[in-house]
Specification:
269 residues; mainly beta; 3 domains; 5-stranded antiparallel β-sheet; 21 strands
């Protein structure tokens, strides 16, 4: 670093320079005369920070916000509970190594979530404790569920944005089926529904006039219809408490968002 200048707290370097009081301004400034690469330590109250800059890509570590933080791992070695690259205020979430060469780990809350492993000429991603089916825990009418009932239990809503598994217990004949937040063209999503029969036999209407597909949460209808395997609509098992599993897969094609449905099984006992 040629032609560098150093301004250090409390130390006059040349005539005309000013000693910088602690807790007020920059305490240390090391930079090139062109200002391209520099190290800055700011001791101003509430804005304490250290900035390393090279060209247009500075890295700032300070007290404000949730910026990055580097630290040595526990007892000299990193681990899921002590990631090396973390965030201020959340030091058990970040990135670390695994203690084995050519492996990288992403950690959330001190628990390893994703591990990238070198495997010959390729890399393998391992998802730890993966949840294969994601469903809410609310009631049959909770709008946070992937599958729920609305309109006094007469409408079944399948919301692709809430997960990929939902369960409902029928309490009325379902006369409308709505698919919300269908995936964009080029992507595919499947929701599996566990449907339990009422003590009185309830029915479904999957006719064209009863089924609507939406790109959002029920405001913008798009072109799409439901197509069942074999051309036969699902007919709910009639026994009290009978369980049917039905999958709904949206496979967009341009501006058409068809739902491909299949009965996985019926009358589970």
């Amino acid at each position: 670093m040629a032609d560098a200048k150093i301004i250090n707290y409390g130390q006059q370097i040349s005539a005309g320079s000013t000693a910088i009081p602690d807790n007020a301004e920059v305490a240390l400034d090391i930079e090139t005369t062109a200002g391209e690469d520099w190290i800055l330590i700011d001791t101003e109250n509430g804005a304490e920070a250290m900035t390393l800059a090279g060209g247009n890509y500075p890295v700032k570590i300070g007290t404000a916000g949730r910026g990055p933080q580097l630290r040595q791992g526990h007892a000299g070695a990193s681990s899921p509970g002590y990631p090396v690259y973390t965030f201020r205020g959340d030091t058990n979430t970040g990135m670390t190594d695994t203690g084995t060469a050519d492996q990288l780990s992403l950690v959330a809350g001190g628990v390893e979530a994703i591990r990238c492993v070198e495997a010959g000429s390729a890399a393998v991603v391992q998802i730890k404790d993966a949840i294969h089916y994601n469903a809410g825990t609310g009631s049959d009418t909770a709008t946070t569920e992937p599958v729920y009932l609305a309109d006094t239990n007469a409408t079944m809503i399948v919301d692709f944005s809430n997960g990929n598994f939902g369960d409902i217990t029928l309490a009325a004949n379902v006369t409308a089926v709505k698919f919300w937040n269908v995936p964009a063209d080029g992507t595919v999503a499947t929701v599996t529904a566990k449907i339990t029969q009422d003590s009185s036999a309830r029915t479904f209407d999957y006719g064209d006039s009863a089924v609507t597909v939406y790109s959002d949460g029920g405001s913008t209808a798009v072109t799409g219809e439901i197509k069942f395997a074999g051309g036969a609509h699902h007919v709910q098992s009639t026994g009290s408490g009978a369980v049917d599993l039905v999958s709904f897969t949206c496979i967009p094609s341009g501006s058409t968002f068809n739902i491909y449905a299949a009965v996985v099984g019926q009358a589970f006992a």
